[in-house]
Amino acid sequence: MPSAPRPSELRYGIRPTMKDVAAHAGVGLKTVSRVVNREPGVTPETEHRVQASIEALGFRRNDSARVLRKGRTASIGLVLEDLADPFYGPLNRAVEEVARTHGALLINGSSAEDPERERELALALCARRVDGLVVIPAGDDHRYLEPEIRAGMATVFVDRPAGRIDADVVLSDSFGGARAGVAHLIAHGHRRIGFIGDHPHIHTAAERLRGYRAAMAEAALPVAEAWTAPGSTAPGRVAAAAEAMLDDAAEPVTALFAGNNRVTVTLVRVLAARTRPVALVGFDDFELADLLRPAVTVVAQDAAALGRVAAERLFDRLAGARPAAERIVLPTTLVPRGSGEIPPAG
Amino acid sequence: MPSAPRPSELRYGIRPTMKDVAAHAGVGLKTVSRVVNREPGVTPETEHRVQASIEALGFRRNDSARVLRKGRTASIGLVLEDLADPFYGPLNRAVEEVARTHGALLINGSSAEDPERERELALALCARRVDGLVVIPAGDDHRYLEPEIRAGMATVFVDRPAGRIDADVVLSDSFGGARAGVAHLIAHGHRRIGFIGDHPHIHTAAERLRGYRAAMAEAALPVAEAWTAPGSTAPGRVAAAAEAMLDDAAEPVTALFAGNNRVTVTLVRVLAARTRPVALVGFDDFELADLLRPAVTVVAQDAAALGRVAAERLFDRLAGARPAAERIVLPTTLVPRGSGEIPPAG
DNA sequence: CTGAAAGCGCTTACAG
DNA sequence: CTGAAAGCGCTTACAG
Q: Are strands B327-330 and B168-172 parallel, antiparallel or unpaired?
């Protein structure tokens, strides 16, 4: 720990610069720069003198200026949907860790699912000249980023594909995961299975619905119109959809597949209030799923891997790699815990 | 949406500058600056010509350079313990929202509970010249920030107090919350209550233990040595401590108070494996606490308010306010859900 | 209404 | 081994 600077030399609210240090030490600006950056070619004596001045004045290099000259900001931007959403926590952290190993800081922000806000944020990050951008898309038209990408902004999309532009994207296997989850229910004897998911204009939601249909088709099971309910994940909408499927007089479903974790949680609440047991498999894992009764069977995605792979791809590009834009799909894992193994009632 | 720039004028990987725009439009640099910043004193005709050049070249102002000249970076730093911890999600988001209303970006990172890493991150943010710093402390000695604060870096600590320096801090009422939670158990007839919390060198953990002792003392209840188990929150340690208290031959506890949400979750698992019902109150709310059986009674903190108040304090200082460093304590809320209202067995 | 010059705090490219 | 000059891309302060 350096000795505390003599108060007489410190001025409140004023930052000493390299120029100040140079004057204080009686050396040239460049010599201070050499010492600060541990460049060779400074006698130990000079170095010591400069170091003393640095401490006396409380100097800390202004990386913001450094970065302007160097051309790289050693920071990357991450646009996510909601900083407070537990699903994105591990993804966020994984991106941060990769950035850290590359000496870069992370600037991030929430789009709040608003395409316009996503655009503003992403462009603000471009204006700051972050070295690269990781985007979890809220909108479905990313042509606004084309000039930036052409100007050299490395960009990788995660969780959902980019819209109307050609760019790297890292996704979970929504189709395969949903298909496996629904096949699991079929394997446990269900023939009437309901699907409740997010708005179908969201890519992942559409893929999961497609996975549901594929599993049903592969088992030669018909799908009644009333069994699929894509739409808002608002609890009221989800609960009403579930009740309708479960209480249908002619063809009540005996099992439900939830398109994401918010839907799953709502369905757990709905089912807890009912007497007849209903099987449930949800897309996305969530904390404490194993502590519920029954414990909830899920199709788990690896959110941390999503972030890690995306960030690594970004830094590969920053290091000069110029592969064609690619779609990287990560596998999901079915985690049987109880709710998905309940046999059909009756 | 602006028309796409003519490809011939765009150069891959090269950013046009104001100088380029000025040359293209046949005007001076300052005129471009005026148009970009919407400053008055430009004829509509000139403005139009400049705007056309901006679009033709795909110019976007380099805010990184702007910021160097302006002196403020319009960004704030947030050092938290773990970007992936659900508890910090709402805090993170709240800080972001406040920053957003002030036109600032958020740079954040995890200390991973490592004081050295906290220090590196905080100082890296200072070197970037963020306008201010919000820190969730990992260490207990923050004197390393003294020169920065003296140089004008606005700094606010959250969730835990700063160590050995005088600075603003925003805290939840750990003492009062724990006292209320334990008093709640006492009110439901318990006389032998166990406390399992985090390491006592963590300020919040110590305060919660103090709250436990205060509630017991106020009810004139003795506290056996074996009933308090501060230490690691590792599930093994916590489970062992709980088993020991519950199985004590002479004075088994009939209720447990958990010092934070990680402890609570472990205790839920321990209690689920037992037959005799045991009352439980946990510090910190967590998702799905109401869906467990019994639903878990908690002392809830308002993590979003913690972040909001801290960030607002920071921006007040950035706006010129110079109040003395203050400790702001936010109230907690007891949320009875079932587990805390179980009467003593026998 | 418009623009040339200086400067923000560094690094780069050179010269001694 | 050391340092003066130019420049990164803007804004500020000023002059016309």
A: parallel
The integer distance in angstroms from the CA atom of A9 to the C1' atom of D2 is 26
- Name the residue facing B84 among A67, A73, A93 (closest C-beta): A93
Is the CB of A288 less than 8 angstroms away from the CB of B269? no
Domain regions of chain A by residue span: 7-61, 73-172+303-331, 174-301+334-341
The whole-number average pLDDT for the span A207-221 is 98
User: Confidence band (pLDDT; 50, 70, 90) for A2?
Assistant: very low
CATH topology of domain B73-172+303-331: Rossmann fold (3.40.50)
CATH 3.40.50.2300, applies to A174-301+334-341: yes
Is B7-61's fold the same as B73-172+303-331's?
Answer: no
Report the Cα–Cα distance between both ends of chain A, in Å, rounded.
Answer: 73
Average pLDDT over residues A272-276: 92
Judge: B288–A293 Cβ closer than 8 Å, yes or no: no
Mean pLDDT of B219-223: 98
A13 interaction partners in chain B (CB closer than 8 Å): 151-152
Residue B9 has pLDDT above 80, yes or no: no
Cβ atoms of A320 and A298 within 8 Å: the answer is: no
Is the CB of residue A49 inside 7 Å of nucleic acid strand D?
A: no
The answer to whether the Cα torsion of A254, A257, A261, A262 is positive or negative is negative
pLDDT at A1: 37
What is the residue type of A290? D
**Residues of chain A positioned with their CB less than 8 A from the CB of B12:** 150-152
In Å, what is the CA distance from B163 to each residue of A300, B6, B81, B167, B303? 41, 58, 16, 9, 21
**Closest nt to residue A67, judged CA to C1':** C10
Q: Any CB–CB contact under 8 A between A14 and chain B?
A: yes
Categorize the per-residue pLDDT at B5 as very low, low, confident or very high, splitting at 50, 70 and 90: very low
- CA–CA dist B307, B310 (Å, integer): 5
| Cβ–Cβ contact A250 with B under 8 A | no
Nearest to A147 by CA among B10, B17, B32, B37: B10
> pLDDT confidence of B41, banded at 50, 70, 90?
confident
Give residue A308's pLDDT.
98
Residue nearest to nucleotide D6 (CA to C1'): A69
Quick check: A132 and A318 in contact, CB under 8 A?
Answer: yes
CATH architecture of A7-61: Orthogonal Bundle (1.10)
What Rg, from alpha-carbon coordinates, does chain B have?
Answer: 27
Cα separation, B316 vs B63, whole angstroms: 23
C-alpha–C-alpha distance, residues A132 and A79, integer Å: 11
Q: How far is CA A17 from CA A14, A63, A313, in A?
A: 9, 11, 37
Is some CB atom of chain B closer than 8 A to the CB atom of A6? Answer: no
